[in-house]
Amino acid sequence: MLWLMILVVVGLVFAPAMWLRPSVRDRRLARLRSAAAGMDVSVRLEDGPLHGNRDKMAAYRWLYPGLRPGPGFLLVRDTHASHSLKSYVQGWRWRVEPLRPLTPQASALFSRLLSQLPEDAVVVQSNDKSLTVWWDESLEAEAFAQLAAPATALRDVLQGNPDRVMGGVPNTPP
After folding, report:
1. How are beta strands 92-96 and 73-77 bridged, if at all?
2. 133 - beta bridge partners?
3. pLDDT tens, 76-115?
4. DSSP characters for 157-173?
5. Which of 20, 28, 94, 130 has the fewest C-beta atoms under 10 angstroms from its C-beta?
């Protein structure tokens, strides 16, 4: 009987420590976010850009340099978009289309990125500060590099092409 009481007391002491231990998913997300940070990708959980979505979404941001802002657009996966929105490529629709047409190089990189996004990536957004992919973080850290490469290349092509006039001088591509 004494041994049983000792086991119960020891169990009660260690039980809270087991609850604080990160889950397998938490450890995977920590590796994924660490890999993203190592590739200069900012990660934050925020209210997503989808209408009626009350849950926080992961926003992976490739920042534009401060003096080379990017264009504004918002592209939504078909499964989360109204069919009245203009189609871009199969499976994706514009909620906010860029003011100026994308260059052939940017369009090719954009198509490459969209084809490599996992199914849980639901929005690709750009504003003057960053190119952002909104998703539920389904990839492993090792697979993230395959996603990061086309996103980085697209960010590099889009930077310096804002939708607005900068400093009173119309923006011209480099």
Report:
1. antiparallel
2. 60, 124
3. 999 888 888 898 989 999 999 998 888 999 999 999 999 9
4. HHTT--SS-BTTB----
5. 20
Mean pLDDT over each residue of the chain, to the nearest integer:
86
The structural domains of the chain, with segments of one domain joined by +, span 23-158
- Structure tokens of 3? 């041994």
Exposed, middle or buried: residue 36 (CB in 10 Å: 0-12, 13-18, 19+)?
Answer: buried
Please give the structure tokens belonging to residue 78. 């078909």
Token digits of residue 24: 């397998």
| d(C-alpha 13, C-alpha 159), whole Å | 55
By mean pLDDT, which of 16-20, 76-80, 148-152, 154-158 is the weakest?
A: 16-20
Q: How far apart are CA 164 and CA 168, in angstroms?
A: 10
* Residue 168 structure tokens: 């009173």
Instruction: Give the C-alpha separation, 72 to 159, whole Å.
Output: 11
**Going edge to edge, which strands form the sheet with 86-89?**
42-47, 56-63, 130-135, 123-126, 73-77, 92-96, 86-89
For residue 17, the one-letter residue type is A
What gap in Å lies between CA 48 and CA 32, rounded to an integer?
19
Taking alpha carbons only, the member of 78, 76, 59, 80 closest to residue 129 is 59
